[in-house]
Amino acid sequence: MGKKYVRLDKDNAAVLLVDHQTGLLSLVRDIDPDKFKNNVLAVAAAAKYFNLPTILTTSFENGPNGPMVPELKEIFPDAPFIPRPGQINAWDNEDFVKAVKATGKKQLIIAGVVTEVCVAFPALSALEEDFEVFVITDASGTFNALTRDSALDRVSSAGAQLMTWFGMACELHRDWRNDIEGLGTLFSNHIPDYRNLINSFNYNNSDKSEH
Amino acid sequence: MGKKYVRLDKDNAAVLLVDHQTGLLSLVRDIDPDKFKNNVLAVAAAAKYFNLPTILTTSFENGPNGPMVPELKEIFPDAPFIPRPGQINAWDNEDFVKAVKATGKKQLIIAGVVTEVCVAFPALSALEEDFEVFVITDASGTFNALTRDSALDRVSSAGAQLMTWFGMACELHRDWRNDIEGLGTLFSNHIPDYRNLINSFNYNNSDKSEH
Amino acid sequence: MGKKYVRLDKDNAAVLLVDHQTGLLSLVRDIDPDKFKNNVLAVAAAAKYFNLPTILTTSFENGPNGPMVPELKEIFPDAPFIPRPGQINAWDNEDFVKAVKATGKKQLIIAGVVTEVCVAFPALSALEEDFEVFVITDASGTFNALTRDSALDRVSSAGAQLMTWFGMACELHRDWRNDIEGLGTLFSNHIPDYRNLINSFNYNNSDKSEH
Amino acid sequence: MGKKYVRLDKDNAAVLLVDHQTGLLSLVRDIDPDKFKNNVLAVAAAAKYFNLPTILTTSFENGPNGPMVPELKEIFPDAPFIPRPGQINAWDNEDFVKAVKATGKKQLIIAGVVTEVCVAFPALSALEEDFEVFVITDASGTFNALTRDSALDRVSSAGAQLMTWFGMACELHRDWRNDIEGLGTLFSNHIPDYRNLINSFNYNNSDKSEH
Amino acid sequence: MGKKYVRLDKDNAAVLLVDHQTGLLSLVRDIDPDKFKNNVLAVAAAAKYFNLPTILTTSFENGPNGPMVPELKEIFPDAPFIPRPGQINAWDNEDFVKAVKATGKKQLIIAGVVTEVCVAFPALSALEEDFEVFVITDASGTFNALTRDSALDRVSSAGAQLMTWFGMACELHRDWRNDIEGLGTLFSNHIPDYRNLINSFNYNNSDKSEH
Amino acid sequence: MGKKYVRLDKDNAAVLLVDHQTGLLSLVRDIDPDKFKNNVLAVAAAAKYFNLPTILTTSFENGPNGPMVPELKEIFPDAPFIPRPGQINAWDNEDFVKAVKATGKKQLIIAGVVTEVCVAFPALSALEEDFEVFVITDASGTFNALTRDSALDRVSSAGAQLMTWFGMACELHRDWRNDIEGLGTLFSNHIPDYRNLINSFNYNNSDKSEH
Amino acid sequence: MGKKYVRLDKDNAAVLLVDHQTGLLSLVRDIDPDKFKNNVLAVAAAAKYFNLPTILTTSFENGPNGPMVPELKEIFPDAPFIPRPGQINAWDNEDFVKAVKATGKKQLIIAGVVTEVCVAFPALSALEEDFEVFVITDASGTFNALTRDSALDRVSSAGAQLMTWFGMACELHRDWRNDIEGLGTLFSNHIPDYRNLINSFNYNNSDKSEH
Amino acid sequence: MGKKYVRLDKDNAAVLLVDHQTGLLSLVRDIDPDKFKNNVLAVAAAAKYFNLPTILTTSFENGPNGPMVPELKEIFPDAPFIPRPGQINAWDNEDFVKAVKATGKKQLIIAGVVTEVCVAFPALSALEEDFEVFVITDASGTFNALTRDSALDRVSSAGAQLMTWFGMACELHRDWRNDIEGLGTLFSNHIPDYRNLINSFNYNNSDKSEH
């Protein structure tokens, strides 16, 4: 009874970043832009940190949708990048699916813009092919909360796990002892409150007279 | 485990617009009127654009509920229009069900006012008869968010897919290459942010000295 | 797949009003007091109008919880009234369950204060005994939205239908022609916007010179 | 420095109810309808209770704006009622100003729909003629909070006192001993929380065995 | 004591639309895009309807800010249009001030994007030169509510009147009898609730059998 | 231009706690009860800590309003306590005013329930007699935000300073060196976040092996 | 169909308090700090009151996360306290699981910081091992509502029951007669509104002349 | 009538950053942490960009308040830095005032934590000494919106100008032509939406085949 606990495994997960494009981002209004930018970069930084195979795709870069956010391309210079010629559901693009399958991973972490289309469509398609799907809800944005809630109801009902970037990073890491400094840096860069905790702690444990 | 991915198919879908009447609209307070008007017209425009058989129905036009919003009747001058003599659940009206079945479609896209009655009742009835039901949550309105959330929980639990008009249009279209200009116009007319993207893009790609 | 459409049937439904007491009402903060009072009285008025067997129960009237709201007792002077000596879950009180079963009804419409206790507990108990349970979410109140949402998740997951009073009245009535004036009066008394529609309509159809 | 304390005085105050019409009320979205209806009736009940001269006015009753809310006309059957033939600012209507001045009162309590027009315009005009103006903000409604806040900034900057109906009643009454039961009844009828306090109190001080 | 009632006068007012550009609009997040688009077009329609001299200005059209929203240029094909080569405060641009003064009007109605810059700066400058300034708060947009509230506090403290487009139209019109149909059309086009009232009214007063 | 900086001075300030009664508190809905209880107790603790003369007053303790919150009476066992026989504005009660004047203080810090009556009325009266009035907005509660905002506009326009309890404590204390531990304890008891900071700091500066 | 009614049983339940640490608490922003502190202490007080075996655990006390909130350690001086050396999911720590299993209880009540990690991870792990899991949503905190809602969707879909502390206490107590004073005290200490009800009630039933 | 337009002048303005300390930041809950961090760094970046003399001050760095946020110290390595030994109002610290006056500037731009204390107190003191004070409301944070609004009412009433960082930067810059790239970079770094506009624009104006 109930969904099984499908636990993210860094050896078995790939990340799909779908349509975080400079034009499309102006449509995102369910999450504040400063926070949303941070969340998207945090997912990317986590993917990088855990060395997860990552695939980037865009829809119509040469039109109003605009190009993929440059920071993402800089973080993943060698990742497969599939600018789709027209397919709205990335899973309808053969190259994209081939790239996904080439990773050999069973778990797909998906974030994108806008949630109900660029995230939900490939998530639903991947579930149909028995992938384990994790939607990163706070790195996926759309027009408003009603739209988001409807989309998340749809993907969750179909079997996807709803997560946010911090939980994703924690579930992948498993144990702080695997690398305290690495994870701490990730959190410090993307959680101002955590950075403050670290800075207060370090200050208290330093020779304060140096300051 | 989990709902299947039931994907909207423009060759197999019909649209039911239920009780968008000038009086009843004053009851809608979970979505702002400017946005709600836009969403309802967007569903209608999408139905028209994809050539989906569309059925209009009303409850008691001659009383306080008021007539069907005139724009909807203008968009669908030849659509079956079933003013119900009293049935609250449109599915209790034989003519309505007959009109639905006459379309020969298996997928029903439903929007209406108010969500927990005019949408939820026929949605639940249609699910019982094994239709695939898509509730367009942002073109369906009601008294407040608690009422809406209760209604959406009920229809989702019974098997309906919750969508919003933009996702509906994207899932029906499948591929921009089927008609870039047509879909772009639909979005430009109903998403101010998208219209701005298009206008900026066109301006940048035009001979600006003409302006 | 999915919950069945369990449709309210006025010949097969009873109403349980649980712990709407003058003291406990001060705990309700997820719904504004003017609206909440209206919703509770609307459920009561609907129960009366549809002649549904109705059972009132309270917890510790002689202590800080205070007595049942007097209006409810006035509306149902002859209804079974079960002041519980201590059981928190009304279903743990034999007299209450006996009264429920004595109605011979299979469908239970429940509202109360507070949602996660006085509503959820008997709702869950009744579901276990195969009653069809309808929680009237807008006539049930509690401390805040998080508490409510947790409670509604629990009862919905267990099989209850979430409804609000207006949907309840509409589903019970089925067809306006059964009694236009009766239902209209119910709505006019409890939905200010609907009352305005009726007043505007009547004015327009009257001899205005009389005014 | 600062506005003077202009204190409402029941011997020197008149009430102006402007354009609470059944059609126009559908425009009010900054206050929930159940609460707004209650607030408007509470101002009226207070005016009645304190015997304040009260003037009703409407704009275009015979058109879409609809008639004055019937309850208000019933509460004040003998009050001057000035249906304005076209003037948007009630103060531009000579009969209205004449009626106001005929009261001989210096303090004007104003509520109406919509705030930035039907309330703000006559409030500003009355201030220019050195009346002391009290805008009842919770019995005045409009499209949204931004509109209301802009309107209230305008009238407050011009010298009006912003009050709500409960403060108005308290300032007029001055001392509970003038009539405990009368004021208590007013509050009981229009403040559910206060009614609960009274009912709990009475119950505790009654012979509970009677219940 | 208090600001004077400065009343909009259609013979003495000009409208300044500042930097409603397709790029800058993506910065506006204190008002929903559907509503904001409507409000801006409503101010423009009102300016047109009342024949007020109107001046358009933009900042850096050829860069990321994008061109003036095309609809505005279409509504005012012959209005002075001053694309500023660099001045952030439009009042620092001589051509703009010249155009304003050329109107010979004393009252300036200002709306723009973003509120704290493109609206507040010229508003403050104009107040210094003893213009009567009316900021249309709902046709001016910015990053968030805190920014807006700070900006409105600044301009109001400096003497500007805060208004919204509906109040502006009503204060300019003064009396419905000046043109019932014209004003009604303006409202019907930009207030969905009002359009519904009109449609219900017309339907009730028509020969319904025609429908 | 502008209000002067009237700075709280612990040698010249008295505290008035008006009508924080167990019944009336159920009317407070503009601040969450956990937070409001904390804020009221924080004002009381600050008054105690700074040794400010404090006056308690109530309205109708023997009726539904209920008694003064017991904690307040326990904190100030020897403070003047004036149960008013009927005056709604505490300043209309001679004993109260006498008690205020007996303190010999010029600065009055006022908090109470409900804001627009029990706080605003004596605040306005005291301003008229040239007291310097500080309204503690977060220890004063009322029905909703609109009521509060209207009340605060009224008292601020009349010359009162709006403060919250933390600012009050800081302005009275002036310099941490006057008593680090005392102020720290006050903050630790009433600001969970500050308590956490202190606990983290102490832990880091302790011999952690002890834990 | 639907989750079974798994009812909390005081003879079969244990409580897990996970990572309520002074540093981590600064991350909690979905619940106000005054309320959150109260909720956490209320869960602890309830655990104590019902004598439930309780287990405390922390992550990295000696770093920025800070120590367990001291009050919790004081309430449970003899409880198993498992400071985890690195495991993020407490269930990955053998000592923790051993301590849980040593209680011999089948029902686990879990609260912690942050919800999607410290609560969700052990909750999902425990469900896999067929424990009955109750997540106390209002004593679990995280970054924002979207994160919380995603986490709660995940644990509820996996079979956990969502509850809040008041419902937990009521379901454990079953019947007021088991100990009226004990439960009343618990509520009085953690629900200001309930405390007010009790104080009003006691005052009304005392010899008031004593006050 | 009304405040004068006091216009920021980059040759006459200094910036005061008060108590942005790693511990105190955990108290800020009226602005989301991602956004607040961005706003504070944006004010700092603007101060740097416009070469404004900037003064940093802290309260009790060695205690729970924690050290100044390191980024601020890095941006202004040579700025006067005044760790106050105890004064809560920075203006009570002679060194601070000396440093302020040593700048020779008349205009003071102030931001800090928490708004009602660390910002409001020195702002009010500076106004008394006839400085022109600009409070940067979005780079100043505090416990909640009520506290903030009370504080801003106090400083605005005393003559301060309320601004946000973007308006501050624009008013200082005056004309884009002074340095298009510099201002553009500032905006690109601190306004995600603006960065997107720039990236879209550049992409459209580049040789896209390069991408």
Secondary structure layout:
Eight copies of one chain form a homooctamer.
Chain A: E1 13-18, H1 33-49, E2 54-59, H2 70-75, E3 81-84, H3 94-102, E4 107-112, H4 115-128, E5 132-136, H5 145-157, E6 161-163, H6 165-173, H7 180-190, H8 192-204
Parallel strand pairs in A: 1-2, 1-4, 2-3, 4-5, 5-6
Helix pairs in contact in A: 1-6, 1-7, 4-5, 7-8
Q: How would you describe this protein?
A:
The structure is a homooctamer of 211-residue chains. Helix content of chain A is 44%, strand content 14%. Chain A is an alpha/beta fold and 211 residues long. Chain A has a six-stranded parallel β-sheet with strand order 3-2-1-4-5-6, sandwiched between helices. In chain A, strand 1, helix 1 and strand 2 form a beta-alpha-beta unit. In chain A, helix 1 (33-49) runs parallel beside helix 6 (165-173). Chain A starts with 12 loop residues before the first strand and ends in a 7-residue tail after the last helix. In chain A, 66% of the residues are buried. The model of chain A has no long low-confidence stretch (mean pLDDT 96). The D-F interface holds D 1-5, 7, 31, 137-138, 152, 156, 161-164, 166-167, 170-171, 173-178, 180, 184, 191, 193-194, 196-198, 200-201 and F 3, 23, 26-27, 59-60, 63-66, 85-89, 92, 114, 116-117, 120-121, 124-125, 127-128, 143-144, 146-147, 149-151, 153-154, 157-159. Chains A, B, C, D, E, F, G, H: This is Hydrolase. Chains A, B, C, D, E, F, G, H: GO terms for molecular function: hydrolase activity.
